[in-house]
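Translate structure to sequence.
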């Protein structure tokens, strides 16, 4: 499923070829900045971004994370709904958890968890770009070597956001949150 347009490039490393996917650059032009964070440490008792609300967002995060810790980005969040994007340092995986993403009563399989392996770059940094709209979430990991695209089913009032760490700390090199205009 593709919700946002993207570019696909071919990369060759050690005689292996693979595709990289990234959102088209025009998406950055389709909105406005809601928050920017530079060089900040986040701990379990200090969640961030909870003052930001939006149903269509472009979120870029670059971070290093303490051994054994997890970092969670919760989008389209309300009292009983949220979609969680989580990086697990111990297993080097990125996941999208839709078990609370809204009305999945039509098909319980619509509320599953999808995950993929994602290693840090050469300097130990994890780069994520998350695009959210009214009915989808797309996660681009690294340079685009990992992409998870999922449908979500939140109510219109589920527009919260939060970034938190579990079991340690993470150094946020940069975080940028932009609202996307879908008109």
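Result:
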């Amino acid at each position: 499923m593709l919700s946002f347009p993207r570019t696909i490039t071919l990369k060759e490393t050690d005689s292996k070829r693979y595709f990289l996917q990234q959102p088209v650059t025009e998406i950055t032009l389709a909105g406005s900045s809601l928050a920017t964070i530079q060089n900040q440490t986040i701990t379990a008792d200090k969640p961030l971004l909870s003052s930001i609300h939006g149903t269509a967002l472009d979120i870029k995060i670059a971070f290093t994370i303490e051994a054994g810790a997890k970092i969670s980005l919760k989008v389209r969040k309300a009292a009983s709904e949220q979609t969680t994007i989580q990086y697990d340092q111990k297993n080097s995986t990125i996941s999208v958890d839709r078990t609370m993403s809204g009305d999945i009563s039509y098909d319980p399989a619509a509320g599953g968890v999808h995950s993929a392996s994602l290693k840090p770059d050469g300097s130990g940094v994890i780069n994520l770009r998350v695009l959210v709209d009214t009915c989808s979430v797309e996660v681009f990991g690294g340079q685009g070597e990992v992409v998870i695209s999922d449908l979500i089913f939140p109510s219109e009032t589920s527009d919260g956001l939060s970034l938190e760490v579990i079991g340690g700390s993470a150094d946020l090199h940069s975080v940028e949150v932009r609202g996307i205009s879908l008109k």
